[in-house]
Amino acid sequence: MTVMEQRGGYRPAPPPAWQPRTDPAPLLPDAEPYRVLGTQAAVKADPELLRRLYAHVVRGRRYNAQATALTKQGRLAVYPSSTGQEASEVAAALALEERDWLFPSYRDTLAAVVRGVDPVHALTLLRGDWHTGYDPHEHRVAPLCTPLATQLPHAVGLAHAARLKGDDVVALAMVGDGGTSEGDFHEALNFAAVWQAPVVFLVQNNGFAISVPLAKQTAAPSLAHKAVGYGMPGRLVDGNDAAAVHEVLSDAVRHARAGGGPTLVEAITYRVDAHTNADDATRYRSDAEVEAWRAHDPVMLLERELTERGLLDEDGIRAAREDAEALAAGLRERMNQDPVLDPMDLFAHVYAEPTSQLREQRAQLRAELEAEHDDQEGALR
Ligand SMILES: Cc1ncc(C[n+]2csc(CCOP(=O)(O)OP(=O)(O)O)c2C)c(N)n1
Question: Under 8 Å CB-to-CB from 75, ≥6 apart: which residues?
């Protein structure tokens, strides 16, 4: 007896026709990270843009070195250096218009500075002096975000709200490879794609989440491939190639501005310094690996392209370095001044309406400070 006979001849109706809701092929990243410098594509690159990128990466390299030195001098509590990642930092900031918003992570001080944030104010949070240290609205740079990936839903919310209001605003959100394992990453990308929000997500894949290598973080073919699951395009780019990052991000920003929705860009790069000054990177990676990446250095790549094309000479290189030295000197001088701090500021900008607990704590701190002041006055009398 056949199976159909056993079932008494019952034939279920075929399921309703199914097909993918969108064609996944155009969303897939290219097989290789996109490159410009040292390739044929560089011929089409705007010389002025290349010079601008170069000036900023040289400044960025020096800023990182100076900020790290300040941690050793006790003037800065912690600094997550972006040495090796300057191309992605600079290109991210320069791909945006002034009216757009940047949502950085703690590592993205350079992007904030390129966008106009005062170089000292960009370090306030890392010094532990005050809150963000700058007014996010002034240059449209959200606070440098330490809780991993939490800046991503904020970016989506702002972009979606701007679109509903009819404002011409794109949000660029930056995150590390480790941050892509956070629930916030998933929620942000999902909402962004469903709402077609004008957001660009830039993952700087620098190989490690502190000591955790990417292979322990994900089994995906690339982080850019994750875009397909959300229904947005994924793009792979050489994160040390400032011209390539600038082109890919500018395309993604244009696409978002034109109503095309979000893009996920993965920039392949490398953190040459330790995670922060509190980390010893020799415990989890080899010198040979670091050296291999130094041979693909973002500053060197731009310098070589510009000099080979006759767009930069010795004088130009010297001028860029002098400008970077001036930036570092200003940073040293201002960071060596003791900040004047009011402990009561702890309670400022926490909530629009302070909670009863905060009001209580504020009163307690005020009473303690007054008592301390009275004691000091008494001791002087
Ligand atoms: C929600 C959350 N969990 C854990 C941490 C601790 N933490 C700080 S940095 C870091 C690694 C992040 O690596 P990645 O996202 O790749 O960025 P990178 O530091 O390499 O720029 C971790 C786990 C944190 N800041 N926030």
Answer: 127, 335, 336
Active-site position among 51, 284, 296, 332: 284
Report which ligand 1 atom has the smallest distance to the Cα of 205.
16
Give every CB contact of residue 246 below 8 A, 6+ residues apart in sequence.
49, 53, 91, 94, 95
Q: For this structure, is 275 an active site residue?
A: yes
pLDDT tens digit string along 229-259?
999 999 999 999 999 999 999 999 999 999 9
- Alpha carbons 219 and 214: distance in angstroms, whole number: 9
What residue ranges do the domains of the chain occupy?
25-278+285-335, 343-380
Q: What backbone torsions phi and psi does residue 36 show, to the nearest 5 degrees?
A: -125, -55
pLDDT score recorded for residue 376: 84
Residue pLDDT, tens place only, 91-125: 999 999 999 999 999 999 999 999 999 999 999 99
Asked whether 152 lines ligand 1 (CB < 6 A), one says: no
What is the C-alpha to C-alpha distance for residues 93 and 82, in angstroms, rounded to an integer?
Answer: 14
CB atoms within 10 A of CB 318: 10
Hey, what's the torsion of the CAs at 23, 26, 30, 35, to 10 degrees?
-170
- Could you tell me the fold of the domain covering 25-278+285-335? Rossmann fold (3.40.50)
